[in-house]
């Protein structure tokens, strides 16, 4: 949600453009971040998200545009003159310094008193749950512990802005999931405005107040995670964020679309009859036999399970749908549903599509 008045703004980007020679890395980036928000920049490799973070940090200089932090134009200010802490993917801890000295580094450079430094370091070690590790060296800690120390060091000077550049990508899946919960809880407790760069959609959706989806140097959509997932603004967002089915169709008018030999009803009107379109819907946007009689439902379909991917608590079935002229669909089944409905390779599955969940984009 955009702030209603300048006092609520922590960061404002105005017309940010960045070119490296003939290559345009960023184009016309406008974004306002509220105080206390956690905003995730997400997108494929090369989309410009890290370049944008580096411009906010003053580690890159924009070709055009302004960076306003807490009402102050810092567009040309060096990194040391900007009020932020930063955590990199590589942690960037000093291997020859103890954990205590790593955390204290920024405070020492600012010539803070010894008592203040000791108190702040002790506070941060407790905050990240590593009170007994102050005398150790980085090599003596696990990857997750090192990342927590990097976070403590970034917070040591009490910055108004925290920048996180792919901070969890070097960790294993279980540690990554645990640490992202810890970072989110810590960010909420401290109320520090945070910008997180990630290519991991699950990470962005689970951590962010708002998600900024980027592609080819531009912003495709900004919004709360649920909005971006359920109501993607563009085909790219629909395809990039989460799993999705994409069906080639033709508009018949009044919210009706033909896929192969089958007519589907949706809540999407306003597209001219005869217009080629793509229908986007998630694997979970279906009704199954365990939810009641399907014969009374619109968009009733059936198909044959061609393959089944077991993914722990749920399964994804690739279903060859009758009448779709070879266009297969991914359907989501909880593990219990898969067992109760006897979903297996070769099985016949009746289901109904939820027309109100379908997103429609004309073919250009």
Reconstruct the topology from this structure.
Elements (H helix, E strand, L loop, with lengths): L8 E12 L2 E12 L3 E5 L6 H9 L6 E6 L2 E2 L11 E3 L11 H11 L4 H14 L15 H13 L5 E5 L7 H18 L2 E6 L2 H7 L2 E6 L2 E6 L1 H6 L4 H6 L4 E9 L2 E4 L2 E4 L10 E6 L4 E2 L12 E11 L3 E8 L6 E7 H6 L7 E6 L5 E4 L2
Parallel strand pairs: 3-8, 3-9, 6-7, 7-8
Antiparallel strand pairs: 1-2, 1-4, 4-5, 9-10, 11-12, 11-14, 12-13, 14-20, 15-19, 16-17, 16-19, 17-18
Tell me the helix content. Answer: 10-25%
Q: Give the neighbour order of strands across the main sheet.
A: 6-7-8-3-9-10
Instruction: State mean pLDDT (0 to 100 scale).
Output: 92
| Main beta sheet | 6 strands, mixed
Helix-strand pattern:
EEEHEEEHHHEHEHEEHHEEEEEEEEHEE
Radius of gyration: 25 Å
Q: Unreliable runs, pLDDT <50, ≥5 residues?
A: none
Contiguous helical run count: 9
Number of strands: 20
Our measurement of the CA-to-CA distance between the termini, rounded to an integer number of angstroms, reads 31 Å
Structural class: alpha+beta
Instruction: State the shape.
Output: elongated
Strand content: 25-35%
């Amino acid at each position: 949600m955009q702030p209603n008045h300048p006092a609520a703004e922590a960061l404002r980007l105005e017309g940010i453009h960045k070119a490296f020679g003939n290559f345009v890395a960023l184009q016309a980036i406008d974004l306002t971040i509220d105080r206390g928000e956690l905003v995730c920049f997400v997108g494929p490799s090369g989309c410009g998200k890290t370049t944008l973070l580096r411009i906010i940090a003053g580690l890159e200089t924009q070709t055009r545009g302004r960076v306003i932090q807490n009402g102050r134009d810092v567009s040309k200010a060096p990194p040391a003159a900007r009020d932020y802490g930063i955590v990199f993917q590589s942690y960037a801890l000093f291997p020859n310094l103890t954990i205590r000295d790593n955390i204290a580094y920024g405070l020492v450079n600012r010539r803070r008193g010894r008592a203040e430094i000791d108190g702040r370091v002790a506070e941060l070690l407790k905050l990240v749950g590593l009170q007994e590790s102050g005398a150790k060296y980085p090599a003596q800690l696990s990857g997750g512990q090192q990342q927590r120390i990097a976070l403590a060091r970034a917070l040591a000077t009490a910055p108004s802005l925290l920048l996180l550049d792919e901070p969890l990508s070097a960790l294993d899946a279980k540690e990554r999931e645990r640490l992202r919960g810890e970072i989110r809880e810590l960010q909420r407790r401290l109320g520090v405005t945070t910008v997180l760069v990630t290519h991991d959609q699950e990470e962005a959706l689970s951590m962010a107040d708002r998600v900024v989806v980027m592609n080819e140097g531009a912003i495709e959509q900004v919004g709360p995670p649920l909005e971006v997932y359920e109501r993607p603004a563009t085909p790219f967002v629909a395809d990039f964020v989460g799993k999705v089915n994409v069906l080639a169709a033709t508009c018949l008018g009044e919210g009706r679309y033909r896929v192969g030999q089958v007519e589907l009803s949706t809540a999407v009107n306003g597209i001219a009859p005869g217009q080629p379109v793509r229908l986007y819907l998630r694997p979970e946007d279906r009704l199954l036999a365990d939810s009641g009689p399907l014969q009374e439902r619109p968009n009733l379909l059936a198909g044959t399970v061609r393959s089944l991917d077991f993914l722990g608590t749920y399964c994804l079935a690739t279903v060859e749908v009758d009448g779709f002229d070879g266009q297969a669909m991914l359907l989501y089944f909880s593990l219990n549903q898969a067992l109760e409905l006897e979903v297996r390779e070769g099985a016949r599955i009746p289901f109904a599509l939820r027309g109100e969940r379908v997103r429609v984009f004309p073919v250009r």
